[in-house]
Amino acid sequence: MRMATKPSAPRLTVKALAAMLQMPAYEQSRVLYDQKYPKQQPQSFRTPYYQKTLSGIRDYYRSGGNPHVLRSAQNDLQSIGNETRRANNLRVLENFMKSSQPKRILAPQPNRRYSATIGTVEVRLSPDLQALEKGAARIIYFNCRVAPITDEIAALTIEIASWVLVQNQLQIAVDQIEVVDLATGKVHRRKTVRPATIKAIRNNGRIIEALWSTV
Fold first, then answer.
1. pLDDT for position 80
2. How far apart are CA 172 and CA 188, in angstroms?
3. Which pLDDT tens digit goes with each residue over 54-73?
4. Backbone φ, ψ for residue 93 (5° rounding)
């Protein structure tokens, strides 16, 4: 079996870094392995596992809120061969349909990718949906997991995403970024970025650099 090519420098997503900031260093190696070898198996911090569902949600908003689009997406999910993956994707779509999210009028925009660096560590902003709502930009992450996202990890996700946007000199306020927890229907937002989070991002960058070559 051919081994995956090792990236020359650490790269991870905003969501992965948010989770890592809540972990002791010895547990962070698992997350880094998932990020370093993303094609090995479906992982918690990779959206491709739920890509068909997320595409259906984006198509729904793109249609202007046509309910037939969601029913069509449900039918499409039945074609997923892996039973567990099919069931998880259906669960997420059904949770979305039962939440308040379908009532929103969102105009999806190109899902631009941004990144920022801490030393040699690249942090990538890869939200699930970028849209306009009443003319204002929205950067949206969906929690697709069975377990609800904790308030702190949701807050860190928003704050780290804001930090990446600031590094790219984008005029998007922190309260325009949100984490929608499809396990509970709760929408997480922040009004400010805590200085402690910026400090933690920088400190954790050194830990990631040290661990990267060991995973």
1. 94
2. 16
3. 999 999 999 999 999 999 99
4. -65, -40
Return d(Cα 184, Cα 43) in angstroms, integer. Answer: 21
Check which CATH number belongs to the domain holding 63 and give it: 3.90.320
State the residue range of the domain holding 73: 1-215
pTM score of the predicted model: 0.86
Q: Please, which pLDDT band fits residue 39 given cuts at 50, 70 and 90? A: low
Q: Cα(129)–Cα(55) distance, rounded to whole angstroms?
A: 9
Q: How many domains is the chain partitioned into structurally?
A: 1
Map tokens 């790269």 to a residue. 11
Question: For 61, what's the count of Cα atoms within 13 Å in the CB-facing half-sphere?
Answer: 22
Q: What DSSP line would sit under 74-95, residue for residue?
A: HHHHTT-SSHHHHHHHHHHHHH
Burial class of residue 83 in the structure, from the number of CB atoms within 10 Å of its CB (0-12 exposed, 13-18 middle, 19+ buried)? exposed
For residue 120, give the DSSP letter: T
